[in-house]
Write a structure and sequence with these properties.
Layout (H helix, E strand, L loop, with lengths): L3 H6 L4 E5 L4 E7 L5 E7 L9 E7 L4 E7 L10 E8 L53 E2 L15 E3 L21 E4 L1 H5 L10 H14 L3 E4 L34 H15 L3 E6 L8 E2 L6 E2 L3 H9 L23 H16 L4 E4 L26 H6 L16 E4 L19 E4 L1 H12 L6 H8 L3 H4 L5 E4 L8 H4 L25 H16 L4 E5 L35 H18 L12 E4 L11 H4 L6 E6 L5 E6 L5 E4 L9 E6 L11 E2 L4 E4 L4 E6 L1
């Protein structure tokens, strides 16, 4: 029997096979529990436990027990387990039996304890969950059912004997600044492909080569941890930080989801693509209080140590700054340890980067009902050191080599000072909604924009990030309109569930030509801006959600990506695809665009080829300025011109260096992509068409 991988690489907690002792070692952290019974099940559902044993608490508040395979025959193959946990509000009594209230004192006490040994808790460190809780409706603990034993239907942790697996490395150890990120939902990526493994890790594995051809160097998957999928598709309702979602496994055998995930990561690495996991440490999918604090959903963390894992009000309701029923108590050491353990685990599975959902929550130093976001000493500031202690390097944006890079969504849904753009540690990258809004506004509501906004975009939002290259620049993400839809609709679809009414979008009066010009202009600005560009994979092929700007709950054609649209070379989708691909390749071939000092190589021009001084506020803050012209001073200078005017603007090109000329690479009013060879431009005057983008190179 082999379990080398888990024996060597699994966390200090959870269930681990001990080959020397021929036993399974179980360890569960709970600061406030007083007694724990480990329950082992032969089947995931429908049967009571076949083996029960008390666990002993050590000096580190870890309950542990070692069960030899000879003691329990069911341990010799896949088995299921969970815990009955006692504490101050439900005291342990040796006479306790399921379906009774022996030892019961209260549903929840003044210290927020919610122990209930009639309810089986799955292991927060388990590598697989037997089945999802949405299959049943009986995880709501209240006066009607608190005595009911749920062991026959409760979600349990599945233990599998998993062999060692060698993870491959990315072929090119690029610095984060050189990445081009593609955001995508794993199932949506291949669900419509004509392959039997569509919508799975194996399907994505087979698509890796295509993603490389498209130009992406990092793929950022929406959450892949096991999640509650009832009325949820995106995965932002996590049930575990160690178990991979079985929903995306082609094989339905126990233990295969993790193996398929590893094989997918290897395939991406072999195609020189890094893998980024979107991970949700700000809330979980279990804890929720209803009209009274004595009525709550409980499945794992809350049953094991409610006051450790969750923030709560003084009257025992869960706080909800995340907007998702509860808030993970990241100010607590036990929670911090779990987060670091989880990151380490996934890094050992080959993951190269993490995007932290609502990452400002990880700054919170208040473990009570309030919030105190501390950018100087919150937990977020210590993650790098904690990983370094485990031999894991967190890369700065400009560092090459082995290591991981970290991306923050720099806000939370509510709470004082919940918007923290620019306040993350220096080696963190941050989603820049400023970049997103600036790019959109220049086409969608140009009358409200000025040249200074575009300059800030091009220079990497320096008023937030200084001279650091920290911005993840994007036009659209999963959370909102697609690139196509924000340029095709005047408002969200009536079918949208809870989508924002204020998100910028426009159909441009139904003008198809202007829609396409706007998309190209937005893409050009994205790839010429200081920072790391991110694009939804579906946006490359003109994916539409039919105006839905919050499709979190739709596991259907609204979210699935149709790559067949680009087969027609006369289609808008094909033109957009070739244009984006050419912009990606242009960025890769002009290294200056990804250099930290890029902003120091740029001059800004007026229509008469005069350089605009930095202090000319009549220009920079003038919303009536219809043009934006800049030159990137590289070995072969690059000149860019864009207009938001309703009429053509005549522009004088800057004078060339001796024996050099301007070659036109791009005019978005013409079909096609960037012409890398360029066409000799014999005039020093160009006509800049409305809503267009032009680019020249000096040779």
């Amino acid at each position: 029997m082999q379990n080398k991988f888990l024996a060597k690489n699994h966390s200090r907690l959870g269930a681990v096979y001990n080959p020397a002792a021929k036993s399974i070692d179980f360890k569960l952290y709970s600061l406030n529990a007083t007694h724990v019974i480990l329950c082992i099940f032969k089947e995931a559902e429908g049967e009571e436990s076949v083996f029960n044993v008390d666990m002993l608490k050590n000096s580190e508040d870890i309950f542990e027990v070692s069960v030899k395979l000879s003691e329990c025959k069911y341990l010799k193959k896949t088995f299921y387990y969970g815990f009955r946990v006692f504490g101050p509000n439900w005291e342990y009594d040796k006479n306790f039996k399921p379906n009774t209230d022996i030892g019961f004192k209260s549903f929840v006490d003044e210290n927020h304890n919610r122990f209930n040994p009639n309810k089986i808790a799955y292991d927060p460190y388990g590598l697989e969950i037997s089945h999802l809780p949405s299959k049943y409706k009986k995880f709501r603990v209240n006066a009607e059912n608190y005595k009911e034993d749920n062991s026959k239907y409760a979600s349990k942790s599945t233990f599998n004997y998993i062999d060692d697996f060698k993870m491959s490395k990315v072929l090119n150890l690029r610095a984060p600044k050189d990445e081009i990120i593609g955001e995508v939902h794993l199932k949506d990526l291949t669900e419509l492909l004509n392959i039997k493994e569509h919508g799975t890790y194996t399907g994505a594995l087979k698509f890796a080569k295509r993603l490389k051809e498209m130009g992406f160097t990092t793929i950022e998957f929406l959450p892949l941890n096991e999640f509650d999928d009832e009325n949820n598709h995106w995965g932002y309702i996590p049930l575990s930080y160690f178990a991979i979602s079985k929903k995306y496994s082609y094989s339905k055998k126990n233990g295969e989801a993790l193996n398929e995930f590893r094989k997918m990561v290897n395939a991406f690495h072999e195609n020189d693509i890094k893998v980024c996991m979107d991970i949700v440490f700000n809330h979980t999918g279990e804890a929720r209080t209803y009209s009274t604090p004595n009525d709550a959903d409980l499945m794992s963390y809350a049953l094991i140590d409610n006051q450790t894992y969750y923030k709560q009000t003084s009257d025992n309701f869960y706080t909800c700054y995340s907007g998702c029923n509860n808030d993970f108590n990241v100010a607590n050491k036990g929670v911090q340890d779990l987060i670091i353990d989880s990151l380490e685990f996934w890094i050992k599975q080959g993951v190269d980067a993490f995007r932290f959902d609502l990452a400002a929550a990880l700054m919170d130093k208040d473990s009570g009902m309030g919030v105190s976001y501390d950018k100087y000493d919150g937990f977020i500031c210590h993650i790098e050191d904690r990983l370094k202690e485990r031999g894991i390097r967190v890369l700065d944006s400009h560092e090459k080599g082995e290591g991981v890079f970290l991306i923050a969504e720099p806000w939370v849904c509510s709470g004082s000072c919940c918007y923290q753009l620019g306040n993350f540690p220096s080696n963190w990258l941050e989603w820049s909604d400023v970049a997103r809004n600036t790019i959109r506004a220049n086409t969608i509501s140009p009358q409200g924009t000025d040249p200074l906004g575009l300059r800030n975009l091009i220079e990497g939002t320096p008023f937030c990030f200084g001279e650091d290259l920290k911005a993840i620049n994007y036009i659209a993400s999963h959370d909102g309109f697609t690139l196509n839809d924000l340029n095709s609709y005047d408002k969200k679809s009536a079918e949208t569930s809870d989508g924002s009414d204020w998100e910028m979008c426009s159909s441009y009066g139904g003008d198809k030509e202007k829609q396409e010009l706007s998309i190209k202009k937005q893409v050009a600005l994205l790839f010429l801006s200081k920072g790391i560009p991110m694009l939804q994979v579906g946006d490359m092929v003109g994916h539409t959600k039919l105006g839905n700007n919050n499709s979190y709950n739709l596991d259907n054609y609204i979210n699935y990506i149709d790559f067949s649209k680009i087969k027609d070379k006369n289609s808008r989708e094909y033109r957009i695809y070739t244009f984006i691909k050419s912009m990606m390749n242009f960025r890769k071939s002009h290294k200056i665009l990804s250099e930290p000092g890029y902003h120091n190589k740029i001059d800004y021009y007026g229509t008469n080829a005069n350089i605009i001084p930095n202090d000319n506020w009549n220009y920079w803050q003038n919303k009536g300025m219809d043009y934006f012209l800049f030159k990137i001073n590289d070995e072969n200078a690059i000149y860019c011109a864009t207009s938001k005017a309703r009429y053509p603007v005549e522009i004088k090109l800057p004078k060339n260096k001796e024996n050099k000329n301007w070659y036109q690479l791009l005019d978005t009013t013409k079909d096609g992509a960037i012409n890398n060879e360029g066409e000799l431009f014999t005039s020093d005057i160009l006509k800049l068409e409305p809503n267009s983008f032009m680019m020249f190179i000096e040779r």
